[in-house]
């Protein structure tokens, strides 16, 4: 993935806020809403996409809509120098949504989904059986209080949060 821009400016933030409010907005609608030239909006969107600033559309799909009603976090301890191999093996499992390297006792934090408890058991056994995995610990996600969000940070970057200055 290409490197994202070093820092988004206030116009980029306003553009991303507008897209957040209406992800299907046309370039023309965005230019009118933001008071920018159509070419400016188009060029900025292209730069943001090329820089990897915008997450893939699939990140907006909720696993529950596909029948995966259980969500869990699995911490994984890995043999030394085995992170890349284990991460690649985890990426091959469809129920693995995210893999994040950690500092501390656990090496990886893995977000997984499952159809039910039996499916989660199968999946965690599959993770534990991967070459290089020493130990796992699974925590069932019971309720999400704050969904993934960028709105408050975009508002600050757009100049809407004066308390941060």
UniProtKB/TrEMBL annotation:
InterPro entries given in the database record: AsnC-type_HTH_dom, Dimeric_a/b-barrel, Tscrpt_reg_AsnC-like, Tscrpt_reg_AsnC/Lrp_C, WH-like_DNA-bd_sf, WH_DNA-bd_sf
UniProt cross-references to SMART domains, sorted A to Z: HTH_ASNC (SM00344)
One GO MF term: sequence-specific DNA binding
Gene3D superfamilies in the cross-refs: 3.30.70.920, Winged helix-like DNA-binding domain superfamily/Winged helix DNA-binding domain
Record's keyword annotation contains Protein biosynthesis: no
Domain HTH asnC-type positions: 8-69
Gene Ontology CC annotations of this record: cytosol
Signal peptide positions on this chain: none
GO BP field: response to amino acid
Domain of life assignment: Bacteria
Name by which UniProt lists this protein: Transcriptional regulator, AsnC family
